[in-house]
Amino acid sequence: MHILTSVAGLGGEYGGFSYIVPEAVKFDSKGSMLEGKTVFITGSTGDLAQKTIENLAEQQANLLLHYRDDRKVAGLKDKLKKYTGNIQYLKADLANSEEVENMAKDIQSQGIAPDYVIHLAAATGNLKRASEVTDKEMQEVEHVNHRAARIIIETLFDDIKEAVLFVGSVAEEAFFSGSSAYVASKRALHAYAVDLAMRYYQHNKRVVYYMPGIIDGGMMGKLSEAQKSASMQSVRQTSLIELDKIADNLVKSLYLPKVQGVEAEYEGALMVRRDGYLKEDLS
After folding, report:
1. Using CA atoms, how far apart are residues 20 and 201, in angstroms rounded to an integer?
2. Pairing of strands 270-275, 13-20
3. Which one, of 153, 95, 96, lies nearest residue 119 by Cα?
4. Does domain 32-275 have CATH number 3.40.50.720?
5. Would you call 271 helix, strand, or coil by DSSP?
6. What is the pLDDT of residue 282?
7. Can you tell me whether residue 51 is helix, strand or coil?
């Protein structure tokens, strides 16, 4: 089906364009949109990641879980024993380009084509100002948060079937001194997401950049109360957000065009979602 639209009045110019309406995807709220789908997740041992993974496992998704720390992943494995989906664990240090590339190539060599990729891995670095952050730390944080994602996705570019979801941060928009390496790397990731979305648009694949507000737990535990308060005020956030809620909305963002209570806007072909903060009350 095509929809033809006429255009007039823009600077005295006339023209028109047409939409090709894609086949509708049926959504059954009683079932699972992710059953049998393969989801590759980086940084699987973090607090938000584990909540997200449990959500996906409950929906019977197949999981490829990246991790770095053997001790932390042991606890995750215990949590996931009760689920019946296919779960595979992949170890790599995201600060090491060779290990990252080998992990992505290992997925390819097994003939696995992920339906979705979620880049949840993140390094905060220290909370100092830019002038106090060493070059080494800046490079390591940038590699984990941004560069590693590029290596993985460019290696698996043709294999990814449906969507890539990057987890950004409210820190990109909340103004307080500190976390310079973290904020810089997330903004670089955001720019890469815009570029990837334009390239994937030609292949009917989606890219989502998901920005949660200040969460009650996870990495936000490193912030002082003063930093949390200042950050929340700068983005008009009234209360901390529960991890479970963020994880649920993050998973829904994989396949739903609209998630209730989450603001969404396009930057080119990139869908940007902001959850739990902003000027308007979306509840």
Report:
1. 14
2. unpaired
3. 153
4. yes
5. strand
6. 42
7. helix
